[in-house]
Design a protein that fits this description.
The complex is a heterodimer of chains A (80) and B (233).
Chain A (H helix, E strand, L loop, with lengths): L1 E8 L6 H12 L12 E6 L5 H16 L5 E7 L2
Antiparallel strand pairs in A: 1-2, 1-3
Chain B lengths: L2 E5 L6 H12 L4 E4 L11 E4 L20 H10 L3 E5 L1 H8 L6 E3 L7 E9 L15 E8 L3 E3 L2 H9 L3 E6 L18 E5 L5 E4 L17 H14 L1
Helix pairs in contact in B: 1-5
Classes of the chains: A alpha+beta (80), B alpha/beta (233).
């Protein structure tokens, strides 16, 4: 089973890296970029086939390690 | 003072730290590998040194904070034991939940490696009794992620309880925008936990302890810890 955990900065948290990327995109002339926030994507392969169990395990993984919930939100998707 | 210096893969300041501890206390520090599950018996002080544990993968300090030895550090701290985290060690203590907040990328995105001035905010703590309140000391920093941030309520509590022990300042001791080297909230360089027995700081006092280093301003922190433990004994 394949799954994806996406970790993003909470709104209101300053993201200097996102700002720098935003500036670079603007200087490249990419049209219509209003703002950029940088995050992380984890593609995870799971051995079982129980979707509910997989979601619970991924939430556990995100809470314990993948995200720092002081500053980050996460989203768990089991892709099947 | 019996010190235990934690060693994680990628840490590189552990020997500087051990040298400073030996100089201040006369005792060899024990080097404790991250996979251990217990601290040496009779440990007075646990030090989480600086460096780049696990290559700063995922987030600075995130993986080291979940190492087996950290459970022992957590119970040591819960029992009132002294814990000092410097640089990556500060990041690890925040990730481990022993200190509030988080160290974000420096506001101007650059890795910064030079001396800074710090104002010692109070002298009545284990980690500052070697200094006078308001004293300005010069110590080096070397980090890319030292921009301390916490939510408004946490900052209010830190300030209200006098838990900010070290603040970035000018040579004259003025806390202002230009001296706030990494953009940290309230120019915070070092904070303690609620109980006052766990300190995290970004600057490296262990690198200013001998004349050959060009400055000995870092000595006070270690001398203070030794004096604190002697007074408690």
């Amino acid at each position: 089973m394949k799954a994806r955990v996406t970790v993003t900065l909470k709104s209101g948290i300053l993201d200097p890296q996102g700002k720098a990327i935003e500036g670079a995109l603007k200087s490249l002339g990419v049209a219509g970029v209003a703002s950029v926030r940088q995050g992380k994507v984890f593609d995870i392969e799971l051995s079982g086939s129980d979707k509910a169990k997989a979601e619970a395990a991924l939430k556990d993984a995100a809470d314990k390690l993948l995200a720092n919930t002081v500053i980050e939100n996460y989203r768990v998707e089991v892709l099947g | 003072m019996k010190s235990a210096v934690l060693v994680f893969p990628g840490i590189n300041r552990e020997r500087d730290m051990a040298r400073a501890l030996k100089l201040a206390s006369g005792h060899e520090a024990a080097m404790v590998w991250h996979a251990e599950t217990a601290l040496p018996r009779g440990t007075d002080l646990v030090v989480v040194p600086g460096g780049f544990s696990y290559g700063d993968y995922l987030r600075c300090g995130a993986i080291a904070a979940r190492a087996p030895i950290m459970d022992a550090v957590r119970s040591f701290a819960a029992g009132g034991g002294l814990v000092l985290g410097v640089c990556n060690g500060f990041q690890i203590l925040c990730e481990a939940g022993l200190l509030p907040g988080v160290l974000m990328r420096n506001a101007r995105l650059k890795f910064i490696c030079h001396d800074v001035h710090l104002r010692v905010e109070r002298s009545d703590t284990a980690f500052t009794r070697g200094y006078n309140a308001g004293q300005v000391i010069r110590v080096p920093i070397a980090h890319g992620e030292g921009n301390y941030e916490a939510d408004e309520e946490t900052l209010k509590r830190l300030e209200g309880d006098g838990r900010v022990l070290y603040r970035y300042c000018s040579a004259a001791g003025v806390v202002d925008e230009p001296s706030n080297i990494n953009g940290a909230a309230h120019s915070i360089a070092g904070i303690v936990n609620e109980r006052g027995n766990v300190l995290g700081m970004m600057p490296h006092p262990e690198n200013h302890v001998e004349d050959i280093m060009g400055c000995t301003d870092g000595r006070g922190l270690f001398a203070g810890l030794v004096a604190h433990l002697e007074a408690a004994a």
